Amino acid sequence: MAAVFLVMLYEYSPLFYIVVVFTCFVVTTGLVLGWFGWDVPVILRNSEETQVSTRVFKKQMRQVKNPFGLEITNPSSASITTGITLTTDCLEDSLLTCYWGCSVQKLYDALQKHVYCFRISTPQALEDALYSEYLYQEQYFIKKDSKEEIYCRLPRDNKIEDFGTVPTSRYPLVALLTLADEDDREIYDIISVVSVIHIPDRTYKLSCRILYQYLLLAQGQFHDLKQLFMSANNNFTPSNCSSSEEKITGRSLLEKVRLSKSEVEPSENSKDCVVCQNGTVNWVLLPCRHTCLCDGCMKYFQQCPICRQFLQESFALCSQKEQDKDKLKTL
């Protein structure tokens, strides 16, 4: 039927030629103008071109010095029955307090109390906020600038083998790092770090790892410390760098973002931009947290070159002034 109608238009109506020529002219004009960047109706553009024009906001960072460091030693050997070994690296004398079987709900209530009620700057403050909703507590004194291995475990007479089926109401271990000297709490913005650690048990055999780390600030905020996805062989060690939420200074880049070499994917040209393979990686892309672009290539991308996710925000690990200082030091 449609073919018959077109044949009738072709034979009897000169308007058919006019409509066809006019349609071709409109479509061709729209494509040409769109190619040269002119503003044309959205219907003539695909969704990818529309998304590319979205502005990527640069996140404003605040420089904060983190006095605490905590990682798990030999996570494969950790369990509820055998215990766990933690390695601390603190810039000041500190206290490591471990809470076994800490209530999940009470812990997050305690974090909210840090914001609205009182600051959790001491183990006693967290204990008051938890209302003693934990099974066992142990505390250790940590000397400054000494990487100490602390062995933690439940008492031998404790017959706990698991914390119930998933989802559990208790975390296996919550580790709190606080400054031992009250005067040091006036120096640092970060006054304590809460680490939620999973330890495999009889029921839930997920490998041992740090699930969450919260930086508690003296001003009453707390931030969830996130990992950056970057290479473990990165030789880029500027004097001042940042994590995904706070800018941390005074250590190598992996230590500043609290990443161990086993937690990131290695590559051969780790310090090189994944695009030009020449510039030094300096930009973190959000929300995917890939750290893969140099200063020169960053301005050309609205999508992550690794996972192709559209960028919402980004921030630089180091400013241009800090990079210039590093270049002068190497010379």
Automatic annotation (TrEMBL):
Entry protein name: Cell growth regulator with RING finger domain protein 1
Subcellular location, record wording: Endoplasmic reticulum; Nucleus
Residues of the RING-type domain: 273-308
Regions that span the bilayer: 15-38
UniProt xrefs under SUPFAM superfamilies: RING/U-box
Record's keyword terms, sorted: Cell cycle, Endoplasmic reticulum, Growth arrest, Membrane, Metal-binding, Nucleus, Transmembrane, Transmembrane helix, Zinc, Zinc-finger
Pfam families (UniProt xref): zf-C3HC4_3
GO aspect biological process, one term: negative regulation of cell growth
Phylogenetic classification of the source organism: Eukaryota, Metazoa, Chordata, Craniata, Vertebrata
General function of this protein: Able to inhibit growth in several cell lines.
